[in-house]
TrEMBL record:
Keywords: Isomerase, Rotamase, Signal. Coiled coil: none annotated. It comes from Desulfovibrio legallii. Its EC number is 5.2.1.8. Residues 47-204 form the PPIase cyclophilin-type domain. Residues 1-37 form the signal peptide. This is Peptidyl-prolyl cis-trans isomerase. CDD domains: cyclophilin_EcCYP_like (cd01920). It comes from the Bacteria. Belongs to the cyclophilin-type PPIase family. Pfam families: Pro_isomerase. SUPFAM superfamilies: Cyclophilin-like. PROSITE patterns: CSA_PPIASE_1, CSA_PPIASE_2. GO terms for molecular function: peptidyl-prolyl cis-trans isomerase activity.
Amino acid sequence: MYKLFFGAGLRRTVMALCFSLLAAGAGLLAGAGGVRAAAPDPTVRLETSLGEIVLRLDARKAPISTANFVQYVKSGFYDGTVFHRVIKNFMIQGGGLTPDLKQKETRTPIRNEADNGLKNKKYTIAMARTSEPHSATAQFFINVKDNAFLDFKNQTPQGWGYAVFGKVVKGQDVVDKIAAVATGHKGYYDDVPVQTVVVKKAEVLE
């Protein structure tokens, strides 16, 4: 499991940004891994065990990430997955593991679009990845505070940042509920909610 460090003076290890991805061949792709273009600014609803979250995606600034996410939604991939990592005052992460923390098989990784001008501000959704910049597949995270240190800085392994592709437009209180749950160590993972938080259903509304 990767440990990522941010800034010369920032000593804490941000385990959440390993994002538990084991995608083979990460970083070898320059495109969208064969995903189809999404409709402009689609809306996606996540029905979770703690309530409903509605996302407005930005297909104009993040066409690859948006199309990738929408394709996973339409295929039913996210149904029954969990928010498997929660760090208070940072982010909530999900979209790839089952309730027993088994990783689901994903499609080919996509290109990192963190240079699209969108910032990791509170209640934005971004693609999760490993330390390899172009390794994102299905996992995502929602920022629960402004996390400027995750933004694109330059095209280096340390500077690529994490690609934002939308924001929460309804259910911010649900995001806050998830961010506030008690967490612990389970299996290979840290920061796992003690009370399992399940994505019961994900669907495209527009």
